[in-house]
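Course assignment 3, question 2. Fill in each field.
Student: A.L.
Task: Predict the tertiary structure for the chain below.
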Amino acid sequence: MGLVNTIALVMVVGWASGINLYAVILTLGVLGSTGSLILPESLRLLTSPEIIALACFMYVVEFIVDKIPAFDSAWDAVHTFIRIPAGAVLAAAVMGRVDPALIAMAMLVGGMLSAGSHGLKMSTRLFIN
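Answer field:
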């Protein structure tokens, strides 16, 4: 993968993980397994049929939970401790095997973008509810 593609994937994975982590994992898994996106070796486990099925199940659960007022805010509060670290880890995994300083930078960027998008989603939902 080229440098620009890697940076873009780090940023997109980090940002989107803050909104819907399971959709990100599902999308990466499906695109990687169909060959539409060449994933780094560190993300190839997402192409496993079991991971894809679990991500699809959790996506459906989150889709349903998002329709229930108040419960959706509680779901988001719990997922603060899931989405942000997962966004950071996925962003770091995009880098593959490179200098540890670059992996740390990707992790920080992914975590920041994930925290920002999750915070915006969560605060908007609280305001609406």
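Instructor remarks: Helices lie at 3-34, 49-65, 71-94, 100-128. The chain has four helices and no strands.
Grade: pending
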